[in-house]
Amino acid sequence: MIQIKKNVITANENDFEYAIKGTKSPAVLLINGAGGPIEGWSRIWDKIGDENIVFAYNRPGIGKSSKHTVAQTGNNMVKDLRALLMSLNLEPPYLIVGHSLGGLIANLFARVYPDDVRGIIFIESSTIKDVLANSKRKKVTDINELAEVDNVLTTTKQIEESGAFPSIPITVIAGTKPAFSWIMPRKLKESRLNNQKELLSLSGKGKITLARKSGHFPQFTEPNLVINEINNLLQEMCGEEQIKLDK
After folding, report:
1. What CATH number does the domain containing 89 carry?
2. How many CB atoms lie within 10 A of CB 67?
3. Number of domains in the chain
4. What are the residues whose beta carbons fall under 8 Å from the beta carbon of 124, sequence distance 6 or more?
5. Measured between alpha carbons, how far is 40 from 2 in angstroms, rounded to an integer?
6. How big is the CA angle at 14 (ends 9 and 20), to the nearest 5 degrees?
7. Which residues, 6 or more positions from 183, have their beta carbon under 8 angstroms from its beta carbon?
8. pTM of this prediction?
């Protein structure tokens, strides 16, 4: 695994730890799962794109980013991401890659800023159905009112109440193995896999790739598969952009 060079910038009245490389558009935005740091992308970082901009960041409460002072709902996380991108002068179009809870953020960002997003890759993405099923199954005794995992129900409601999902190409990468047998039994994994397949209905331009050697972290266990899917969608996006320029 490589060392990812990180910096800190202030945006939306918070400090954000981030990493960025490349100069070529479209930019690839990597959105971590719940509590996940930038280092979660270390096995794919150097092999994404052909000098494309690649960007990752730590949300409030992670790494050297500020502690969260407001509830980490989807709307607030999308506002933070947008402010951070503008502070860094990272202009669209974007290809967003969202892992786990990061998939919910990607879903909402694309609805709020549909003209800015040209494609999404959902990696083992959480879905609205997953969140609703978990809320019924779990008895929560210790709630952090500001934490992103404890605001995930609000996030799903905000997705449902937001604008329509844009007609953009999406790729769903889903692991087929239970992440941890004591946390995610096989039946739950099957249900989660079915929910991820339903993400394809967001767009008429969707495909699913099964990571058969992976559980919840294909970017760790099958990095080449994830790299190939990102680069394939990047090439598709670049082709569409060229057609627009030629017209």
Report:
1. 3.40.50.1820
2. 10
3. 1
4. 33, 99, 100, 103, 173, 174, 175, 196, 214, 216, 217, 218
5. 11
6. 30
7. none
8. 0.93
Nearest-angstrom CA–CA distance, 150 and 5 = 30
Residue ranges with strand state E in the chain? 7-11, 14-21, 24-31, 52-57, 94-99, 117-123, 170-175, 206-211
Domain that holds residue 16: 7-246
List the structure tokens of 51: 């000098």
Residue 1 is assigned to a structural domain of this protein: no
pLDDT tens, position by position, for the chain (247 residues)? 678 999 999 999 999 999 999 999 999 999 999 999 999 999 999 999 989 999 999 999 999 999 989 999 999 999 999 999 999 999 999 999 999 999 999 999 999 999 999 999 999 999 999 999 887 655 555 678 899 999 999 999 999 999 999 999 999 999 998 765 545 566 777 888 999 999 999 998 999 999 999 999 999 999 999 999 999 999 998 876 644 544 4
Q: What are 8's strand-pairing partners?
A: 17
Task: Report the C-alpha gap between 26 and 232 in whole angstroms.
Answer: 13
